[in-house]
């Protein structure tokens, strides 16, 4: 075990545990209620040094099934290069192990945006962390590769073009923007010292702000149509228009917050004004969030900043502002989370450092008084910043971690603790990414997949959202259990491939693993000789796909007349031999991989031609050689 | 094998028992017309590359032959020999390495010039072969067995050492040329046979 700077154990855990049990018993009937437990779990950040927390990612970095916390810390005057915090979740306590695990990212003026994403398709979460300039050079972005056990290696120099310009990055985004199957990166404010109050620079600056994945483990710095038109805060990704590619929304100061529509090839165009977003300048927006708040299957939008939350409803890919939420405390509002905190199938809203708002099912929000929600402590935060959601204690409800730049961070445990939920975690998408940013998950009552009026929840996996928050990429759905209800879950991967998980019962967590076809399928006709008989064999060989980690068997099909199953083979077998074949005939075969849930991959196919079979002798062992000689 | 070895021993013992101490075999012309029966054994090296790949370069065989000798003008004469031999060999298929079992049975008829000094004899001549084959396969193989027959030619030569008036040792070689295309491809069943034998002689 590695103990970081704050490797202390919480005190009086037993009494707090009892309190938790009591709270659980009281609030397990669908009422939103939270308990602040940051001290119990020792996750308050650098509270002794005045805070510094500006954002947070929930992520299971070591893949032990417990969600860990990564706190993004900004420096302060006289205290630059504040390390980030990686709280490893040990179940009943957390320990900051950022230093030991190589994830402290203590550069320049600290970190703002940071996103965990599987960059190299090895089914763990790597880290893309920005560096804030703030007058200290160098301020460059960094990429850290997770070695699988949550030890991180800084690989920036080896895969990203040399960075010569200091950056003032705030929000960052990660997704397969160009649809080529690998993860690209986007970062805001690609210049050293932008003036936040310099409205609408003219002309807009077309700066390289994408790291486009070359597919070989390296990235190219490119401009992809998103101009720097003003100081940018939070950024998020989603497919707002349902066209299958991933768009970008960002919250800005001065310039209007907007949406950039992806043309499908990873090039973007500012369409905010055309699709109904406010084009008024001079706003100071900090966070932007896409979520389906009215369960109609598309992404509605929330923009927070300037003392209000503007809620936009998506109707046929056009936005209209339908509700504005304001509050009384003199805080700008930086971050909004959407989560089904009461497991009633609609998304509720939490505003960082403020309160929780309950959804009426139509996307209209009403504040839940803090006396009822238990969020009195949220209202005492000094400078609340990014927040994020995860079920850190595995009790089936969504908990909240909130950073405070000038105070201690808060962990609000949801006391709902009922079984009216279904969760889905994507362990491997069709491209082999864990988490699968860009995947869409839709929950329906059993037997009604695809019927819009039955939709019980639509989620899209994203990286950062709001202001520097990132949820654990697990889709959480409220799923009432009344009447023995069962549900079907449809998962749409970024490449459009869909899987349906049927007959799910409330309280069930689905681990979604896309099965990829085997690689390098080869087929060869081989002559197997006796003295008076020549047999033509066809030997099929393939290699296991490293994207799969749950293959139970392979299926071999012959495709010449329909699809005839020839064999089911164990996962350890990578060849199959067909006997007594016609050496002049062309054969077509397919091999698929099947996982433990019975999901079958797309087929790898091959045609074996009608050419003369090759002669080949197997390598003989010593015993067979002796036997042959004797 | 179990039958051939006792028979071989019986011939050897009876030949030795009937023999007389002698310094020279009788050379009377009318006594050089004789009939022999004998047992043969040796090595048959098939030329076929596939055979060599599957079974090895050669196989042992056992056989028997009868010979009639007609003197022309002593020591010259003519031998007519007929006989047969059989060989079995185990092997493995080329790729799957499944068991193979081959039996080759060969009937032959030879017409040879012979030169018999009374103590030694040499012979050389052509003949015909009739080869039957049967190859048996493992259960996993698509078929159980293949069998058939084919005729061919041979050239043989060798010599005798007369141990007694009734018993001789024979050493010989035979080059056979037998090919078949019945399975749909060419198989060369021919090859070189090196053998020895013991013969019992009857005079008439």
- Estimate the mean pLDDT confidence of chain B: 86
Number of helices of chain B: 2
Oligomeric category? heterodimer
Written as H for each helix and E for each strand, in order along the chain, the element string of chain B is HEHEEEEEEEEE
Instruction: Name the overall outline of chain A.
Output: globular
Tell me the greatest interface. Answer: A-B, 23 and 28 residues
Beta percentage of chain A is 35-45%
The share of residues in helices of chain A is: under 10%
> Whole-Å distance between the termini of chain A?
61 Å
Distance between the termini of chain B: 31 Å
Number of helices of chain A: 6
For the largest sheet of chain B, list the strands in their spatial order.
1-2-3-4-5-6-7-10
Any idea what the radius of gyration of chain B is? 19 Å
Strand content of chain B: over 45%
Q: Share of helix among residues of chain B?
A: 10-25%
Q: Overall 3D geometry of chain B?
A: elongated
* Count of individual beta strands of chain A: 44
Low-confidence stretches of chain B: 15-30
Written description of the protein model:
The complex is a heterodimer of chains A (630) and B (204). In chain A, 6% of the residues lie in helices and 39% in strands. Chain A is mainly β and 630 residues long. In chain A, a hairpin with a 3-residue loop joins strand 15 and strand 16 (258-262). The N and C termini of chain A lie far apart (61 Å). Chain B is mainly beta. Chain B is built from 2 helices and 10 strands; from the N terminus they run αβαβββββββββ. Chain B has an 8-stranded antiparallel beta barrel with strand order 1-2-3-4-5-6-7-10. A two-stranded antiparallel ribbon of chain B has the order 8-9. In chain B, a hairpin with a 6-residue loop joins strand 3 and strand 4. The longest helix of chain B is centred in the N-terminal third of the chain and has 15 residues, at 4-18. The chains are: A mainly beta (630), B mainly beta (204). Chain A binds chain B through residues 526-535, 537, 577, 579-580, 615-618, 620, 624, 627-629, and chain B through 48, 50-51, 53-56, 91-97, 100, 102, 133, 135, 137, 141-143, 146, 148, 183-185, 187.
């Amino acid at each position: 075990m590695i103990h970081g700077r704050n490797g202390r154990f919480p005190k009086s855990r037993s009494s707090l545990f009892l309190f938790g049990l009591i709270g659980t018993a009281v609030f397990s009937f669908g009422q939103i209620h939270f308990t602040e437990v940051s001290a119990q779990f020792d996750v308050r950040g650098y509270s002794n040094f005045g805070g510094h927390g500006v954002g947070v990612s929930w992520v299971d970095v070591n893949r032990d099934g417990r969600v860990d916390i990564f706190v993004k810390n900004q420096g302060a005057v006289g205290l630059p290069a504040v390390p980030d915090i990686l709280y490893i979740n040990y179940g009943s306590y957390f320990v900051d192990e950022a230093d030991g695990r190589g994830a402290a990212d203590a550069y320049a003026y600290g970190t703002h945006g940071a996103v965990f994403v599987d960059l190299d398709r090895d089914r763990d979460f790597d880290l893309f962390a920005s560096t804030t300039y703030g007058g200290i050079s160098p301020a460059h972005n960094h990429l850290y590769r997770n070695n699988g056990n949550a030890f991180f290696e800084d690989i920036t120099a080896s895969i990203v073009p040399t960075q010569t310009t200091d950056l003032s990055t705030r929000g960052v985004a990660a997704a397969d923007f160009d649809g080529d199957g690998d993860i690209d990166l986007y970062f805001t404010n690609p210049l050293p010292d932008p003036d936040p109050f310099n409205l609408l620079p003219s002309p807009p600056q077309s700066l390289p702000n994408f790291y486009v994945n070359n597919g070989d483990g390296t990235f190219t710095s490119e401009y992809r149509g998103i101009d720097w038109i003003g100081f940018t805060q939070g950024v998020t990704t989603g497919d707002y228009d349902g066209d299958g590619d991933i768009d970008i929304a960002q919250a800005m100061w001065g310039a209007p917050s907007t949406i950039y529509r992806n043309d499908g090839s990873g090039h973007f165009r500012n369409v905010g004004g055309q699709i109904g977003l406010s084009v008024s300048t001079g706003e100071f927006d900090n966070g932007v969030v896409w979520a389906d708040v009215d369960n109609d299957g598309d992404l509605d939008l929330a923009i927070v900043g300037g003392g209000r939350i503007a809620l936009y409803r998506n109707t046929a890919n056009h936005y209209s502002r339908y509700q504005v939420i304001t509050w009384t405390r003199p805080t700008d509002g930086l971050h909004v989370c959407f989560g089904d905190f009461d497991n009633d199938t609609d998304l509720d809203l939490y505003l960082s450092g403020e309160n929780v708002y309950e959804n009426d099912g139509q996307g209209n929000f009403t504040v839940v008084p803090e006396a009822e929600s238990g969020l009195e402590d949220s209202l005492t935060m000094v400078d609340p910043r990014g927040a994020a959601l995860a079920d850190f204690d595995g009790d089936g409800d969504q908990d909240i971690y909130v950073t405070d730049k000038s105070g201690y961070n808060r962990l609000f445990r949801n006391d709902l603790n009922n079984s009216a939920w279904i969760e889905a975690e994507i362990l491997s998408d069709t491209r082999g990414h864990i988490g699968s940013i860009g995947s869409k998950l839709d929950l329906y009552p059993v037997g009604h997949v695809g019927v819009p009026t039955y939709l019980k929840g639509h989620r899209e996996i994203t990286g950062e959202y709001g202001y520097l928050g990132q949820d654990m990429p697990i889709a959480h759905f409220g799923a009432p259990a009344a009447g023995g209800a069962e549900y079907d879950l449809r998962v749409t991967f970024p490449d459009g491939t869909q899987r349906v998980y049927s007959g799910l019962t409330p309280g069930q967590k689905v681990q979604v693993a896309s099965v990829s076809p085997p690689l390098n399928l080869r087929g060869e006709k081989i002559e197997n000789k006796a003295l008076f008989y020549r047999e033509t064999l066809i030997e099929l060989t393939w290699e296991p796909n490293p994207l799969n980690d749950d293959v139970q068997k392979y299926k071999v099909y012959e495709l010449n007349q329909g699809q005839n199953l020839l064999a089911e083979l164990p996962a350890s077998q990578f060849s199959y031999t067909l006997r007594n074949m016609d050496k002049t005939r062309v054969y077509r075969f397919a091999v698929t991989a099947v996982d433990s849930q019975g999901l079958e991959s797309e087929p790898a196919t091959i045609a074996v031609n009608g050419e003369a079979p090759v002669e080949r002798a197997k390598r003989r062992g010593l015993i067979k050689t002796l036997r042959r000689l004797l | 094998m179990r039958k051939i070895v006792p028979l071989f021993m019986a011939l050897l013992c009876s030949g030795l028992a009937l023999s007389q101490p002698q310094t020279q075999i009788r050379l009377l012309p009318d006594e050089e017309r004789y009939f022999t029966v004998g047992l043969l054994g040796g090595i048959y090296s098939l030329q076929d590359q596939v055979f060599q790949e599957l079974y090895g370069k050669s196989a042992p065989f056992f056989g028997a032959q009868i010979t009639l000798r007609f003197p022309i003008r002593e020591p010259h004469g003519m031998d007519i020999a007929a006989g047969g031999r059989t060989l079995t060999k185990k092997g493995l298929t080329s790729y799957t390495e499944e068991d193979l079992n081959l039996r080759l049975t060969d009937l032959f008829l030879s017409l040879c010039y012979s030169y018999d000094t009374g103590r030694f004899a040499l012979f050389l001549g052509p003949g015909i072969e009739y080869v039957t084959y049967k190859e048996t396969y493992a259960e996993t193989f698509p078929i159980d067995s293949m069998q058939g027959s084919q005729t061919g030619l041979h050239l043989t030569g060798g010599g005798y050492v007369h141990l007694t008036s009734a018993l001789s040792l024979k050493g010989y070689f035979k080059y056979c040329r037998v090919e078949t295309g019945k399975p749909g491809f060419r198989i060369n069943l021919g090859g070189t046979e090196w053998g020895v034998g013991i013969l019992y002689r009857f005079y008439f």
